[in-house]
Amino acid sequence: MSTVTEDCGLRERKKRETRSAIHRAALDLVEEKGYAAVTTDAIAARAGVSARTFFNYYPSKDAAVLGTRPEDLDQVAARIETQPADETPLDCLRVAILDLLAPSTLDRALRAQRRRVLLGEPALAPAMIGNNIRVENALTAALERRLGVAPGAALEPRLTVAASLAAVRACIEHHHGSSGGRDGRDLNASIERAFDLLAAGLR
User: Fold this and answer.
1) Which CATH number fits domain 1-65: 3.30.70.1250, 3.30.200.20, 1.10.10.60, 2.60.40.640?
2) Which one of the record's GO molecular function terms can you name (predicted)?
3) How far is the first Cα of the chain from the last one, in angstroms, to the nearest whole number?
4) Does the pTM exceed 0.85?
5) Which CATH architecture has domain 68-203?
6) Cα–Cα distance measured from residue 185 to residue 40, given in angstroms and rounded to the nearest whole number
7) Which of 88, 181, 185, 197 is exposed most, by the fewest CB atoms within 10 A?
8) Distance between CA 189 and CA 156 in Å, rounded?
9) What is the pLDDT of residues 120-164, one digit of tens each?
10) pLDDT tens string 25-53
């Protein structure tokens, strides 16, 4: 491995670590103090970064708590568009979503904490709704581009995306509601089954 490749790998790992530290700090502070009492400066201080660094990773307090960034959504959209030409729209979404939720990227404790915070803070509801809309719009646009369909010209891309996201949410709720012992692989297996059911028409 070349020095350049090693340096790039170290930089990417450092970025992931910093991003995770900011997200964890945001969740910890909201659990401790309540959403309204938390500021971006406080999150940055808890994560050990400057305010400027905070905004290099997240555009707002809401985004830091949710743990989402536009770049992440762009990557998922790109994954949809670059799937082999013979893949169905539903299978493209399956691959992109499973990549995003790969077991190696899941932290069960962090996911559980984020769920507690989001369910326990009504003030975050608008941010959650807005994030869900952005996700649906971005994936719909990616599917439209893949299919060569003008924006909004056909129902199928948006319906496929909406059904896929609803299936994933159902799997996550099922995953959290089931008793003990479930990990990221269990969640992925549930999502795979959900997509199989969608493909079969939920007969």
Assistant:
1) 1.10.10.60
2) transcription cis-regulatory region binding
3) 51
4) no
5) Orthogonal Bundle (1.10)
6) 34
7) 181
8) 25
9) 999 999 998 998 899 899 999 999 999 999 999 999 999 999 999
10) 999 999 999 999 999 999 999 999 999 99
